[in-house]
Amino acid sequence: MMVRLFVISLTVGLSIGSLVALFAHLFVQIISTAQYLGQQDYFGSGGYSIFNHLTPFLWLLGGFLLVRLIAKLFQVDKWQGPADAIYMVHRADGTLAPRQGLATMLAALASLGGGASLGQYGPIVHMGALFGSLFQRLSVRATLSNDVFVGCGVAAAISAGFQAPIAGIIFAHEAVLRHFSARAIAPIAIASITASALSSWLFGSSSFLQIDIGNYDLLMVVPALLMGGVLFALIAIMLMASQLKLAGWLAASRFSVWQIGLAGVFLLGIIATAVPETLGLGMSTISAMLDGQYPVSILAVFLIAKILAVLIASSFGFVGGFVSPALFIGAAAGGMLALCLNMLGFDISVLLLMVAGMAALSATIVGAPIAMVMLVFELTHSYDFAVAAMLSVVVATFLSHISFGHSLFDQQLAKRNIDISKGRGHLELSARNIKDIITQNYLGFSPQTKAGDVLDAMVKHQQTEAYCIDEQGQYVGKLMVYDLVRAKVSETAGSLAVADQISLTVTDNLQQAIERAANFVGETIPVLTEDSHHIAGVVTEGDLFAAYLDCQRDIQRIEHG
Question: Could you tell me the residue range of the domain that residue 132 belongs to?
C-alpha cells in the first residue's frame, strides 16, 4: 500500500506539474503576442495623432467581442475563478465544470490579449485547478482526494508563473486548500518543483523581480514598513470593496451585458489614451518603477488610473485575475510613500517599500501572506528583504481581515451565501438536503380519530409519537403517548395535537436541521413541504447523528487522507 501510494503521488505530481508548466507558458505567450500586436501603429500615423489612439479601443473591442462569442458558444453565463476552486476543494464531492472552466480560460485569453487591465496569474491558477480536477477523473479517487489534485495544479501554476516552487506549495495550502495534510504534501511538492524546473529548463528564467537589494538597516525602516502596511491595507480594502459593489450594482441594473461591456471598452480606451502604461498586464511598467524611472507625481497618476482600470475591467465584462494589478498598484503605492518620506528627510529605500507594497497588496487580495513573503524570498534571494516585506504584509492582511474579510475570493463566495470561514463541516452539512434522509416510518391520523384508537395503534406499532393530519393532508400537530394515556374517551386526535412542536421543511439543509434540533426532546421531527405544509416525512435524532458522522468521515478523508 505504501509503495502504491508513493508511485501514485509521484505520477500525479509529475504529470500535473509538467502539464501546467507547458500550458502556463503557452497561456502567457499568447497574451504577450496579442498585447504586442495591440501596441503596433496600424494606421502609420506615428506620434500622438487621433489615429494612433484608435488601436487600444479597437483591440479592447475585439477582446470583448471574443469574450461574448465564447460565452455564447460554450453557453455559459458565469465565469469560474479561484473562488470556485476554493469552494470545490472544501466539498467532498466537489468538482469544476470542464466546459465552464475551458470557457473561462479562453475568455481570459481574449480579455488580456485585448488589453484589459487585469492579471494573468489568477487565470493560470484557475487553469491549474481545472487540470487537477480533470486529472482526478482519470485517477484512483480512493487513494487521493480531489483537493490533492487541485492543490497540485494550483501549486504548479504559481511555481511555473513565478518560478518559485516553495511559494507555490505554500500558496496551494494557504490560499486554496486551507489545511495541511501529510498525504497531500508529497504530490503537491512534486508538482510545484516539476513545474518550476521544467519551465526554467525549457523556457529559461522569466522572473521580473531579479533586483539588487543593496544594504539597509532593518531597524531604521521598520516605521516606514508599518506605515506602508496601513496604507496598503486601505488601498486593498478600497479596491476589493469597490469591485464587489460595482459588480453587484451592474449585475442588478437594467443595462444589458452588451451595454455594460461596450461602456467598459469606451472607459478603458479613455484611460489607455491618457495613461497607456495602465493598459494590459503592466509588467514592463512595474520593472520601470522598480528601476526608479518615475517621480512621485507619475506614480500617483499610475496608482489612480490603474485602480480605475481594474475596477472597470473586472466589473464590465472582462475576465482576468487580480495579482498582476495588485503588483502594479503595490509598487506604485510603495514608491509614492518612500519618495514622500525621502522628501521629508527620511532615508528610506524606495525599492524596499515598492516590493513590500507588491507583496502586501497581493497577500491581502488573495489571502496568502506567508506565500507572498516566501515569494519575495525566492525571487529576491534575500532573507533580510523577505523579513522586511513581512512587516507590511502582516499589518495589511491583519487590518483587511478584521475590517473586510480574509480575501477577495472569500467575499465573492459570501455574496453567494457560502461562508468558507466556518470550515468544511459547516459547508458540507449546508450542502446536504434534509429530504435525503427523511423516512415514512410514522403514524398519521385524522383530527376526528378517537384518542383510544390512536393509543391502540401506537402500542401496536411500538411508537410513542404520532401525527395529526387533516383531510387535505396538511400537518395539524404531534400526538404524544403521555397525552393520549391521560385523555378522556370523548377526546379526539385533533384536540390533543400539539402544533408548536419543532418542525423542518424539505428545503432545509442538514446544518439548519441540526441547529433547530439542538434543544429537541422526542423521537421524530416532522418535515413539511414549504408551500402547503403537507407532511413529507419525518427524521429521527439518530438520522441526524448518522448524517453528521457521515459528513465528518468525508471531511476526515479530505484533510487527513
Answer: 2-203
Residue 132 and residue 238 share a domain: no
Last residue of a domain, one of 386, 418, 450: 418
Burial of 119 (0-12, 13-18, 19+ CB in 10 A): buried
Identify the CATH number of the domain in which residue 433 sits.
3.10.580.10
**Residue 211 domain-assigned?**
no
Q: What is the mean pLDDT of residues 487-510?
A: 85
Place 1 in a pLDDT band, splitting at 50, 70 and 90: low
Residue 265 has pLDDT above 90, yes or no: yes
Contacts of 518 (CB under 8 A, 6+ apart): none
Which residue, chain included where needed, has cell 479562453? 106
Confidence of residue 306 (pLDDT cuts 50, 70, 90): very high
> Cα dist. 274→45, 52, 271, 532, 558 in Å?
18, 12, 5, 61, 50
Phi, psi of 43 (to 5 degrees): -95, -5
Between CA 72 and CA 241 the distance in angstroms is 30
| Residue 333 in domain | yes
Identify the pLDDT of residue 440: 87
Query: What is the chain's length?
Result: 561
Give the distance from CA 405 to its chain's centroid: 12
The pLDDT tens digits of the residues spanning 188-235 come to 999 999 999 998 888 776 665 666 656 667 778 889 999 999 999 999
For the entire predicted model, the pTM comes to 0.84
Fill in the DSSP letter of residue 420. G
Among the residues of 75-145, which ranges form H helices?
Answer: 82-89, 98-113, 121-137
